[in-house]
Amino acid sequence: MTARVLPFEPPASREGSFLALELLPGRVQGALIDASGRFRTRRELVFDPSAGREQILAQVDRVALVLARGSVLSGCVVSAGGVLDTVGGRMLQVVDMPSLEGCEIASRLRELVGAPTLLEHRARLQVHGDHYFGAGQGEETFASVATGSTLGVGILYRGTILAPDGGRSGAHMTVARGQLTCSCGKRGCWRTIATTAWLDERAEALGIPAVGLAEWERYAAEDPRTAAVVGEYAENIAVGLANIQQLCTPGLFVLHGEAAQASDGFRARILATLRDLSRTGGETQPRLRTNPIPEDDATLLGGVAYLLHRGILPAS
């Protein structure tokens, strides 16, 4: 078995089930997962992120109830972005879903599904998922990177998750002072230049349809203007990673989302810029690895690892 650094081991019994929920702007997904990481059932619903609290929570409830029905749950975990009170199970600041600010979502779900329920930041759970089930197995230090419509980095440093409880994922670190205004109200956040929204803005400026990175790369083969945007986008992602490399020297960055699904050339541009900006050498020389686990699955699996880490074991 591949060595794991986090201080827990797979339980002897894997018969019980865990409920893992992922709350994103406009979408809630969930899965019933056993302690070995096997997905038993999945469910997903969409909603208007600007809707009222009860409208959004009604969709969360529906997903949770369908998955929990007929199962004996050992535990439940819900992941979200923003600033969270993980001890109290409360969402403090949720820029993209403002009606949920102040929501005590953990206690609500605990009563709904009848199992211990924890709230945790998605970036932290993604690290747990990578380390316990994915491309970070056996690594003592690495960073797990979400790219695409969302952006964030979770760090495992010498076997410890390096982030405050309910903490931030780095998306709002300031990388371009005085530039674009972020949804959080600040200017120049990494998120303003390194997400799909930035690509959509460039598409509008060039008068082309808003498309995903894969389509941008196809266009880039024939259009120098598009190729320049794709190259700039790769460098924008690298800017934030370089700051993290300078501060924490994780060395290994495990990519999820758009950057993981892009071409080797796109990732080579990220890596070259990252190495140029960070200028660290030796064992901490930056390197990239793509994860075979889809981004959202890594977060859901990380929820299971987190529950095991907290000593919540499968019901016999």
Tell me what the structure shows:
This protein folds into two domains: 17-126 and 296-309, ATPase, nucleotide binding domain (Nucleotidyltransferase, domain 5, 2-Layer Sandwich), CATH 3.30.420; 139-292, Nucleotidyltransferase, domain 5. It is globular, with a radius of gyration of 19 Å. It has a five-stranded mixed β-sheet, with helices on both faces. The protein has a five-stranded mixed β-sheet with strand order 10-9-8-11-12. With 316 residues, it is of the alpha/beta class. The protein has nine helices and twelve strands. Strand 9 and strand 10 (160-161) form a beta hairpin. The two termini are 24 Å apart. Helix 3 crosses helix 9 (295-309) and helix 4 (196-206) packs antiparallel against helix 6 (224-248).
In short:
By secondary structure, this protein is α/β, with parallel strands linked by helices. 36% of the residues lie in helices and 20% in strands.
